[in-house]
Amino acid sequence: MRQPGEITQVGEGMIQVTFCRPEACAACNACEGGKKEHAVWVRGTGRVGEIAVVEMPDRMVAKASAIAYGMPLAAMLAGLAAGSLLTGGGDMGAGAGALIGLALGLAGLKITEKRRSGREDWNPKVVEILEKETGEA
Known about the structure:
Elements: E1 2-10, E2 14-20, E3 37-43, E4 51-55, H1 58-86, H2 91-117, E5 125-130
Antiparallel strand pairs: 1-2, 1-4, 2-3, 4-5
């Protein structure tokens, strides 16, 4: 997946790239509560105002999506089953188990996200810097 965005801040060896939400995402609103812009820090160099083309392999985008949605869902379903079994099939126990499972799944996601963010293959890369006025390198 390649996405162009404007460099909005520059740090030591890092640039902040601000992306506008793609048209394909207009109906979803899941990212950042539906904000039209999203900023990400990426390793690279550039100047504020330039356009950075950022790439992340499609397989990694698919894996990240599967983990982000699958881990909390699986934990919630496991909690639902455990709560139901522990309370003899009661709805309150199943509901409480589902909420506890969801909370544990989200906590696990946060913990494993820290590990993944340190790996080079999970991070987006700047593949091109373009001048903002002309759109050419």
